[in-house]
From TrEMBL:
It catalyses: an acyl-CoA + malonyl-CoA + H(+) = a 3-oxoacyl-CoA + CO2 + CoA. GO terms for cellular component: endoplasmic reticulum membrane; ribonucleoprotein complex; ribosome. InterPro entries: ELO_fam, Ribosomal_uL22, Ribosomal_uL22_sf. The chain crosses the membrane at residues 186-207, 292-312, 324-344, 364-384. The keyword Lipid metabolism applies. Keywords: Fatty acid biosynthesis, Fatty acid metabolism, Lipid biosynthesis, Lipid metabolism, Membrane, Ribonucleoprotein, Ribosomal protein, Transferase, Transmembrane, Transmembrane helix. Gene3D superfamilies: Ribosomal protein L22/L17 (3.90.470.10). Its EC number is 2.3.1.-. It is found in: Membrane. The lineage of its organism: Eukaryota, Fungi, Fungi incertae sedis, Mucoromycota, Mucoromycotina. GO terms for biological process: fatty acid elongation, monounsaturated fatty acid; fatty acid elongation, polyunsaturated fatty acid; fatty acid elongation, saturated fatty acid; sphingolipid biosynthetic process; translation; very long-chain fatty acid biosynthetic process. It is an enzyme of class 2 (transferase). This is Elongation of fatty acids protein. It is a multi-pass membrane protein.
Length: 394
């Protein structure tokens, strides 16, 4: 009896199987279970910012009958867990961009070698998009007023038996605030006149000092002009124009005042540059150090180009050679260091008539310039790397 019932069930199953295989529902379910491609985890570094990310978006699988194109599952995941960056590191980067123009802050985070800078950059881009599209702000004058990162709330306990907060996962929380800075027409006009005045003055200083120095090289012996033992160049030209150049360093502090009035902060580079220039020029004028001609001629030439560029940007123009001005500044520092070092290396040969420095005052003055320029080169290189450098590949 049992064998007869078993043979009957097998006969019915063989009769139903062809119709079941030809049904559409079987094809669909088989494709969903067997042909669905496995989901891929995102690579490290491919995720977006903290809480300001687009929600996880998964494209639905589309099924087709067997024999046609297979379905492809596409997943777009955004997870902050891929970034192993502590809030302390993120806050260190956030402090660097407070008070900076928004475009400059984005560029600084773009070329930063820190992997955590990707989070800050995406937050800045999100804030910029929100300000332009939703708040109706203009792209000009956007400044980062606040930037900070915190641990946020504890969202999930990984291990129930952990002690204290051990094993608790938290979601990083970041906030970026930007503000629109507007300048009155009178303020813009004052900035333009300030930059134009420094450009004209720097060009005037360069023309007079360089012309006299070149004329002396044509009419006198090289070592006589190089050391200026007679003091003719200092008495006729360099002493007067060098003193004016020293006074102009006080007026250049207006650059920092303008930045503060715009709601931005003065960088370490700018503060050190202005303070060091005042002290070194005072030392060289006080001790009548002849090698200061290098500083006066080269720096006045660079400032003529630089302040002309600043005056053009005040009028709304954007000349594309800003990075070349930074390179020109670095070039003058390297050339000045080499020439300054050569004054300490001149020997007492018969054709040279002795050393250029006969007193301790000029030695101290030129030595102070070289010590001041050495950290300045490093600050300018770091500035150029942050703004114009190439981003390192992860």
């Amino acid at each position: 009896m049992t064998n007869t019932f078993t043979r009957l069930r097998a006969t019915r199953l063989q009769s139903w199987l062809p119709s079941l295989i030809s049904s559409k529902s079987f094809f669909t379910s088989a494709l969903r279970s067997a042909d669905r491609p496995p989901s891929q985890r995102p690579a490290v570094g491919a995720s977006s910012i903290f809480d300001n990310v687009v929600a996880e978006k998964v494209q639905e699988d589309t099924t087709f009958p067997i024999g046609t194109e297979k379905a492809e599952a596409k997943e777009y995941r955004f997870s902050t867990a891929n970034f192993k960056a502590s809030p302390q590191k993120l806050n260190m980067l956030a402090r660097q961009i407070r008070g900076l123009p928004l475009s400059e802050a984005i560029a600084q985070m773009t070329f930063s070698p820190k992997r955590a800078a990707v989070k800050i950059r995406h937050n800045l881009a999100f804030a910029q998009k929100n300000a332009l599209l939703q708040k109706g702000m203009k792209s000009e004058g956007l400044v980062v007023s606040q930037a900070w990162v915190g641990k946020g709330q504890y969202s999930k306990r990984i291990k129930i038996h952990g002690r204290g907060r051990m094993g608790v996962m938290h979601q990083s929380k970041g906030e970026v605030k930007i503000k629109q800075t507007t300048s009155s027409p009178l303020f813009v006009a004052c900035i333009f006149l300030h930059n134009l005045a420094l450009a004209v003055y720097s060009g005037w200083t360069f023309y007079h000092t360089f012309t006299v120095y070149r004329r002396n090289l044509k009419t006198m012996d090289f070592w006589t002009v190089w050391c200026d033992k007679s003091g003719d160049f200092w008495t006729s030209t360099l002493g007067l124009y060098g003193y004016y150049f020293y006074l102009s360093k006080y007026y250049e502090i207006v650059d920092t005042i303008i930045i503060l009035l715009k709601g931005r902060k003065s960088s370490t580079l700018q503060t050190y540059h202005h303070a060091g220039a005042i002290f070194t020029m005072w030392a060289n004028i006080n001790y009548a150090a002849h090698p200061i001609w290098v500083f006066v001629i080269l720096n006045s030439f660079v400032h003529t180009i630089m302040y002309t560029y600043y005056a053009a940007t005040t009028l709304g123009l954007n000349p594309p050679y800003k990075q070349y001005i930074t390179r020109l500044q670095l070039t003058q520092f390297f050339v000045g260091q080499c020439i300054g070092a050569s004054y300490f290396l001149v020997s007492n040969g018969p054709t040279r008539g002795g050393e250029c420095f006969t007193r301790a005052g000029p030695r101290f003055a030129i030595g102070s310039v070289m010590l001041y320029v050495a950290p300045l080169i490093w600050l300018f290189v770091e500035f150029a790397r942050r703004i114009y450098g190439k981003r390192k590949q992860a």
